[in-house]
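Hey all, quick one. A colleague (J.T.) asked me to put the magnesium ion job into the tracker so the inputs and the structure tokens live in one place instead of scattered across chat threads. No bug as far as I know, just bookkeeping. Sequence used:
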Amino acid sequence: MTARNGDGSTPIVYVEELSGHVGEGVVIRGWVAGTRSSGKIKFLIVRDGTGLVQGVVTPSADKETFRLAEELPLEAAVKVKGTVSADDRAPGGVELAVEHVTPVHIPNEEYPIAPKEHGVGFLMQRRHLWIRGQKQMPLLRLRDGALWAMRAFFKERRFIATEAPILVSTSVEGTTTLFTVDYFGRPAYLSQSGQLYLEATCAALGKAYWIGPVFRAEKSKTRRHLTEFWMLEAEMAYLEHEENLQLQEDLVRHVVEYVTQEHRRELEVLGRDPQVLMDEVEGPFARVSYADAVEIVRSAGVEMEYGQDLGAPAEDALSEHFRRPVFVERFPVSIKPFYMKRCADEPGVALCADLIAPEGYGEIIGGSQRVDDQQELEKQLREAGLAEEPYQWYVDLRRWGSVPHSGFGLGVERTVAWLSGIHHLRETIPFPRMIDRLDP
Ligand code: 4AD
Ligand code: MG
């Protein structure tokens, strides 16, 4: 959609639309991302959230514009009027022959983030500005694309998008990573996962999912842990373990296909080869039991005992071994939450799977079939040392029309890290929350 400029004749367009306007006069509204001079010509790099374009200012532009082009500081807000020309060497394939620059806001202080290397601490402290950076913008656009693809996948499969509360009175994923808040004089927690609520919703709607923020008071300071992150959770009635894995595999493949088709530009700026991702999801995902995974991890020289959770080195060893997404199934029940159904042929292991991404991006999905028998659930609650009272409503789901059901939770930031090839989760969300980071 193009709007009209103030002079009534020149269309206002976004940088990403410029290639459709070659030879035409347009106005771009954005911010100065860089300037340089070469003899009598000045170059103005302008970004507008959809991309970057180079404006070329020659002495044939009006005097004021020529003077401004010399002096505009980084992050000055400007409207730039010019004619679009095709240029194969330019990113996006176009340049702008600038005719006039209208300043909107000219900072009178130097922009704190210079176009040079800064330490991560320095940048994180200025995250509110850093998100304007040339790598951050495509990352956030890619995140949007991945989330869009997830929603489209579930819409297509006729899942209902729903919600789960954030303020809760119970734990889902163990009591050690709960954030407590004062709820009118009694303790409440920030939800670790919407799963228990989705189990209720799926008995009402059949197929349900939500995408929402969840919270973990993780003491771990690693590149894979945030204290607030976004989870996509899906839950489906009458869905059994095998079908659950197929659903996850289809979802992940769909997201990869979508972003590698629709976000080539972003992937290119990020230096991520889309072919690598496409190759990784081309064939069926690998599957391994936890017990066999332990052997693989050990033979890669990583110390691990049966009964320990998969740490980062173990996950890395598995992704190195399989080089495509791998489901690790049949975890010992001692390291999995109370709600997981047990394997009929081996009650010591859970009917569950974690999906480990390739290339060392770690576990991106955790899922399982759920206990659907009331007595069994009550027993597993007791074994987990959880008070039964706050879970009464959850037990109720097993009293009236209980059916086999399964679901999973996908970590949005870990998935975006893998898709984008970004090492640390902190860059995959606009304002990350970590053990040592609550600002900005
Ligand atoms: O494996 P998790 O803990 O599973 C659950 O919470 C289930 N209740 C989900 C369900 O079945 N509905 O978390 C799911 C995913 C992980 O695989 C991981 O990708 C991500 O959430 N995740 C984190 N991401 C960032 N920071 C953290 N601290 C994370 N903890 C888990
Ligand atoms: Mg997990």
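Adding what we noticed when we looked at it: DSSP finds 13 helices and 20 strands in the chain. The chain has a mean pLDDT of 95.
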